[in-house]
Structures are given as C-alpha cells and as structure tokens.
Amino acid sequence: MAKKDAPPRWDRKMQQRLARGEFYDRFASLVHGLAHRVLEDDQAADSVTREVFTHVWEHPDAYDPKTGPLRTWVAALTHRLAVQRLRATGTAALTDEDGGASAAELELKVRHASVAARADYIVQSMPAPLRAALDLAYFQRRDYRQTAADLGVTEDEARRRLRLGLQLLSTAHDAGASGAPPEYGGAA
Amino acid sequence: MSGADRFDPGDESAHEKHEDLEGHGGQDGDGKNAEGEPVQNEQGERGSGGPGGPDGGRVPDEGRLRIPTPRASVEDTGLPLPAPADPAPGAAPLALEHPVLKSLLGAWALAACSAEETAAVEEHLGDCGSCADEARRLREAVGLLHPPEPLDLDPGLRTRVLAGCLARRPPRIPVPDWAHAYDAETARLDALLQDFGDAEWHAPVRLRWFDGTATASRRTTVAGVIAHLLAVDGLVATALGLDDPVAGLPADRTASPGTRTEAYWRASHFPPTRSVRTPWRRLSHDIVRTVSFTGGSAGKLAVSYGGTGDGGEIALPLRDAMLDRAFECWVHAEDIAEAVDYPYDPPSPRHLHRMIDLAARMLPLALAERRRAGLATPGPGRHLVPAGTPGRSLRLEIEGNGGGQWLIPLDSPAATTSPDHEVAHVALDGVEFCRLAAGHVPPEEAAAGQVGDREAIRDVLLAAASLSRM
C-alpha cells in the first residue's frame, strides 16, 4: 500500500492529482466521513473537507512517504482539523453559557469523537478478511461457525479473525491525551 | 439455525464495504452513532437488556464477572434474530482448554458463540485475569462498531474544493478547459453510483435514442449502462493511445459507439455487474490525466466515431469528443437516476452551455445528412448556397442557465449565417433541448416556441434528435 501511495516525485504528483480531482475522488469520502464522525454535522464536515484539501494543495510536500501510507496521513490530518473545529465551536459555546463544569464535558466529547473516528478508520483500513468476519458476526448476526462457513474458512480461523479484528479495533482507545492527533496507522 | 439473510437489503451497505476496501476507501463507516452518544457508554447499560443474541437466558452470575454482559449485535435494525442455539439450560459448561477459551474471546464478545461456549468462557473469566482483561477490551471494541450509514457527499463540494484550490495557485499541469465538463460529469455519476447495492446495479434501464425516423430503444441494466459508457469512452482512449477497454473489435476500421457497446456486452459471458464501475472510473481518470499531460493542443486530435453507411467516417476533434462524452455521461446518469428513483441535477450552466454549443454546431451537418438521405426538405431555391456566403438561417434560442443564441445555417454546413437571412426562430429550455438532442424527447413533442418557416423548424428539431445514438 505504501508503495502504491507514494510514487516517486509524489509531492508534485499529489498536487497534480488534486488539480485533476483524482486525489479528491479517492479521499473525499474518507475525509468527509471522518470529519462527520467527529463533528456530527454535514456543513461542518464540508468545511473540514475543504480545509483538508486546501491544506494538501498548499503544502504538497507536507506528507513524507517514510512515515506511512498516504491514506493514513490524510486521515490523521482530517482528524486534527476536525477536532480543532470541534474544540473551537465547543469553546465558543462555553463562553456563551456557563463555563466551568462543561469544559470537562467538552474534553470528554472531544475524546469520544476522537475514539469513534479512529475506530471508523481502523475498520475501514483493516485487512479485508478481518473486516468481512466482523461484518458477518456483528452486522449480519452470524455466529462464528456460520461466519466460518460463509467465508469458507475453518472455525478456528473464524475465531482468530474475530478476535484479531476486535483487538485492532480496541486500539482506537489508545490515542494519547484527549483530542491529540492519534497515531493513525496501527491498523493500516 | 436460520440466521439472518446475508444479503438482507437492510444491511446492504454493511456488506458493500468490503468491496470498497481496496478501491478508494469508500464512504462506509461514516455513519453516525445513532444516539449521538459516546458508544462505549451505552454497551454496559444495554448488555443484558438488549434484544438478546444467542446468549439470551444464561449468564450464570453477573456479579462475579468484572465485565459487561454481551450486548446485542445489531441495534435497532429490526432484523430477524437468529434462532436461539437451544442449549439444555443448566447443562454443565464445556470443559475447554485455556487456549481454546482464549481463541473464543472475539466470538464471545460479539455474542457469536454457542450458549455452551459462552458459558464456558464466562466461567473461565472468573478465574483467569488475563482473559478477563482481554474480554473487557474486546467487548468495549464491539461498542465501536457502527452500522455504516451512507452519507451523500454533496456533488457540488468537489467543484468548490477544486475551485478553491485552483484559485489559490494555478496547477502546473492544468486540466484543459474543454475537459472540465467530462471530469465533472464522470465524477458526478461516480458519486451517484457510490452507494448502489446489487438491486440498483441490476435495475432495468431502457436506453432510448432517435434513429432518424422514430425513437429506438434497447433494454439493459444500470451496470449495462456503465459498460456502454466505458465501451464508448474507448473511442477517446484509443485516440489518445490508451488501451482499448473493448477487446475483439475489427482492427482495420473504427467501430461505432453502438458496435463497441454490443461487442463489450457480448464479450463477457455474464451480464455486467457492479464490477464494471472500477474500470469505467479508472479509464475516465486516465483520459483526464492524459489530456492534461498532452496539453491544450491535443484538443484538435481527431477522434473517429466509426464509419458512415456510405463509406465515410465520422470524426470529432478531441475537444468536442470530450464534450460529447460528458454529454452522454450526464444523459445516461439521468437514465440511471430515473431507473433507481434518485434525484439528479443538470450539469453546471458553464458545462451545459458548452454541450448545447456542440449540438448547435453539429446541427448543420446533421441537417445536410438528413437532406441527402431524403429525410429533410431541400432548400427553397433548390440549390445550395456557395460556401462562405450567407444563406437562410434559423435562430436557435436556448433559455435558462447555460443558454444562449445560435444561428443555424439551413442550406449548407459551409454557408455562413446572417440575421438578415433569418427565416425562423425557435426557443427551447436548455435541458429540454439536450433531452431532444439525446433522443429522449420526440421532436414533435419538444416544447418549443416557434416563429417563422414551419418546415425549417421541423427539420432542425428532427436533425437535433438525430444527433442521438445508442
């Protein structure tokens, strides 16, 4: 994935792809989806989407392929800008009304939004076999034996995939202090 | 166990997500938490009170466990529950080894074990601290799973984002302005396809066009329409030196759009499926990339549309072929949207204007061809005006966003037009005119305001309809 994402001369290419809309076509739903998970508001997610792509446009060299896949970097950037916005609007709301106690609530909200967005990203990025197993067992309500049969794997393997998938997902809670840009990449 | 139907439409988006994984990451997973609450808070409260999975009714001693009881695996979906595992209640827990119990933790957290296994795992959790820790962690992770909720990305957002970027700094390698409409229309159609499930991909669509005398049609599916667009985009691809998506065409001459489409449909043993989306989108991106790198001068490159009946060849300069492809992409996107009952907007006024302009510029040739074929009335003087001199003209007035006025030479494609020689005036709405040119509105039913030479007007409307093809 890293190789496909980071061709030589990626910085110039990234900008060219963005100019052609390809970069947008590839990442817009990821960006908008994560922003929406954090902000729970269409317009705010639209604004963050614009900010993310504008940032990429203006800083085509900001991404270093050595640090990981492009997709991971885009997700982390989105996360950072979305949390920034959530915090800014939340803080503005605090000064309007009674501050104090609700500052802690805002921190909690930021933290939950962060974890939820990170979990989404992990689910989207985890290996397809793990995702398929979780999908069957959770959303389609198959037990693990049925899941194994549906996927054409042994029951041992189905158990392994379900456990591993959840283990990956549980790292969503491991982000640092509240709202800090998390380490996107654990599951990528 | 009967279990839930794997392809229950209610969960379409859920199973759709694996297919999206490799492509573009998809829009999945961005549903919002139904309650808007932090998820991990809800699971503990829900657990035992949930609609009950296969684990319902056992749970020996909750107080002894330091972890929440299993939650229901699907919230609020109303899906049929799997039949209970039907254990003998109170049966002695299975005697399983620690490694087996550990391997069951994921399935246990998802309430996807048999009742006996669940009981055995929970028995074990009381004694084994490391398993209990992991169990708690995995159970919390289950709370982070969300049914993906398809979110419609506003198609206008793409335009705004790109325009915002370009306004800040022009790109080193810009997309030629004549390729913008194609870029925008393919992106809009791709966005429409984003959340389609199998039902939508196989929804029937009737392709319609005007064959010169009447409306013709051909039945296909949504996937078949995308295959059609892909096959005809191959005309542009081959002109640019890209690989032809259609195999097995005669090498000696260019195949017409219809021939290409039939060849593509025939070449696969099965009717087209959703899998056609990826090659179609890849080709449209490749085309935009290639014309950008080739630069604006490529606009004059000839794109052959195949032979005419009498041995001639129809060709358009690339810049017009790209507009034609953009136009067809929109027209078929509307066909698709109609078939699945989704709303779909017309192109932006700027792009619509270019499409109308292309049709207006092609009218004189279409008119001449119909006249040659005996389908249109000859000129009143029964003679063609010499090339470059003004002849009878028709004023085509297109109303609405993207509209304008065009003078159409009636006597010869080579004649110039002049307001002094105007013999008729037709006024149509822009979108209506495009539907006429797409063969979707019969010429005699086109809602047009008309003044002047009735026959000339009729000929021009028929010529507009005959611009359409499959």
Automatic annotation (TrEMBL), chain A:
GO terms for molecular function: sigma factor activity. Residues 23-89 form the RNA polymerase sigma-70 region domain. Keywords: Sigma factor, Transcription, Transcription regulation. One of its GO terms (biological process) is DNA-templated transcription initiation. The keyword Oxidoreductase does not apply. Belongs to the sigma-70 factor family. ECF subfamily. NCBIfam families: sigma70-ECF (TIGR02937). This is Sigma-70 family RNA polymerase sigma factor. It comes from Streptomyces adustus.
